[in-house]
């Protein structure tokens, strides 16, 4: 008896299984191999919907000029110390109470009772000194290498704004532990603002939220230290970094490009 | 910079960049190493020095000596150095504001296209001088002691006279410190420079009798210590002994 | 810039826009651009103005200083100061207190005219340079500031260093044998009374106009 051959159902060509490729097959085959590619798949999924990989590639694989040395790590180190301040600050805020009657006790609790409390507090405290030192060193490098000149003038201006904001951070943060040192340093600091003619007296009233050191002075300093200035620093830092990537980092001023023989000849003939 | 100089710079920079290396991983590796170093320093400082907390804020104190954080010492010293009351707003607001404006506008008034520090003598010298001035003010601010304390080494001729003389000297030092002399006079690192003359070596200029006479009958605005001489002659004598041994 | 295209006429009639009439300049696009800006400004103002007012409110709010007893009349002499603690702001615990130096009016040193408010002289401990705590040194009869070198004489006038005016004072009055301390006021170098100012704000010459008194604190009327 001849074998009965059933008719093939009409399948649209898109759904027909692809014929096997000849030769060796690359890429994941078994489900386990597919699972191993999960990270790449997830990144691919996000990139398909955001097209961010172009920007990341532009940021990470741009060329830095030759001669770039250790002095060029000061800027990123400043940013890194800011990140460290942000993280330790968030954890300190979980225990800190911004009230003039309880602030000192809450810092004592952090230091004495909280697990690793004094360590995190110390990191925040010494990290602030570190950030101030690094931002000054970074500014010194920019100044002596002439890196603020064309086309990077705007980035210098943003950098000075970041320096002032960093000093504002250290001034407002200094009051928060509420010990003798911080209290009197803040009194003097507020009065320094008050010596500005005409607007000064109103500015000190604004900083203290009244004519004297009062109930809401500490929370004002806390809000400025915690939210206002860090937000401004993060935004300006992002713009600063964008401009660095856009314009490229400078080469040390004494490094000269080696131009090829051919180019030199063209110059002579023109 | 004119258009030609701008183009020349961009061309040169373009060549340098094309001969360079990609940011990742070459520069990132250096940045990462630096970040690890920074973190190591912060963690070491935190473990070794900790986060010391002073006594609780006390607004009623009359004996506390306020001092700022170290990176504001230069401003603190500037406020100490500028004495005339009419110039106070200059020290508090004026000079810092001018410095900030000068910093902001640096790329706009420094139009020199040259970038090598050794070929920009004015900018480089100004930068080094600014750093040196800030460093010097920071040092002075850090070493400024409160006017209510005096800490001078015991002179050789006093220690040569034996234990009694040294004890007398120390007692006199304490009396002078409590009597507010540091408000107007300088003793070594402590006290204020003016309106009175520096007393670090007063014993060389005046004999003990003359010092005692000045303390009782001073020229204005110095206060008379006749009250102390009457109520506590021992302390007055210690004071005179201390001052006359400052050589 | 010779290669710029000539600017378009602002009149719709000149630009052959359908429905244009003589003298009209506002096109549909112009109108929509204007509305977008207006709506944006209103929306931003709707949250920015209340927030600003909220932050600035305390600058215009007057804080009254209550009178408080500091001791019997017999506790204060005319030739030396006695420190007393007063409460400036009762809501903030210890940081709302302050120390004042008190003594009796002494016609040998005090030259200002006597009235109901200065039978006892109450001197603030805030240095008038930048507000550090001054200390009265009895043997020298001087107020000495530990910060930047300010020195004041027995009545609080500046004798050395950078302070810009004499030490601030407090109104005092006597009731039933008790001395009461009231609001603070500032004085110029002739010890004339002014509305309270912050440290570092001179009151001589044009100083009182350069550093105006603020709504948060005013001098007692008729004093």
Helices and strands, with pairings:
The complex is a heterotrimer of chains A (270), B (247) and C (223).
Chain A: H1 31-36, H2 38-50, H3 53-60, E1 63-64, H4 74-93, H5 103-112, H6 117-144, H7 153-175, H8 180-194, H9 200-208, H10 217-247, H11 261-269
Chain B: H1 3-18, E1 21-22, H2 23-49, H3 73-81, H4 88-104, H5 106-109, H6 121-143, H7 156-159, H8 163-178, E2 186-187, E3 190-191, H9 202-205, H10 208-216, H11 226-231, H12 233-244
Antiparallel strand pairs in B: 2-3
Helix pairs in contact in B: 3-6, 8-12, 10-12
Chain C: H1 28-56, E1 68-72, E2 82-87, E3 97-104, E4 120-124, E5 135-137, E6 142-144, E7 151-152, E8 158-160, E9 169-175, E10 178-187, E11 193-194, H2 207-210
Antiparallel strand pairs in C: 1-10, 2-3, 3-4, 4-9, 5-6, 6-7, 7-8, 9-10, 10-11
Please describe the biggest sheet of chain B, giving its number of strands, its sense, and whether it closes into a barrel.
Answer: 2 strands, antiparallel
Span between termini of chain B: 60 Å
Helical stretch count of chain B?
Answer: 12
What's the CATH H-level homologous superfamily of the domain at 156-244 in chain B? Answer: Cytochrome c-like domain
User: Largest interface, by Cβ-Cβ below 8 angstroms: which chains and how many residues each?
Assistant: A-B, 87 and 73 residues
Average of per-residue pLDDT values of chain A: 89
Widest β-sheet, arrangement of strands of chain B: 2-3
H/E element string of chain B?
A: HEHHHHHHHEEHHHH
The quaternary organization reads as: heterotrimer
Residue windows where pLDDT falls under 50 for at least 5 positions of chain B: none
Radius of gyration of chain A equals 30 Å
| Low-confidence runs of chain A | none
- Secondary-structure element sequence of chain A? HHHEHHHHHHHH
The number of E-state strands of chain B comes to 3
SS elements, strand count of chain A? 1
Q: Roughly how much helix do the residues of chain B carry, as a percent range? A: 55-70%
Q: What proportion of the residues of chain A is helical, as a percent range? A: 55-70%
Q: What would the CATH topology of the domain at 70-247 in chain A be?
A: Cytochrome Bc1 Complex, Chain C
Keywords (chain C): 2Fe-2S, Disulfide bond, Iron, Iron-sulfur, Membrane, Metal-binding, Transmembrane, Transmembrane helix
Domain Rieske (chain C): 114-181
GO molecular function, one term (chain C): 2 iron, 2 sulfur cluster binding
Transmembrane segments (chain C): 38-60
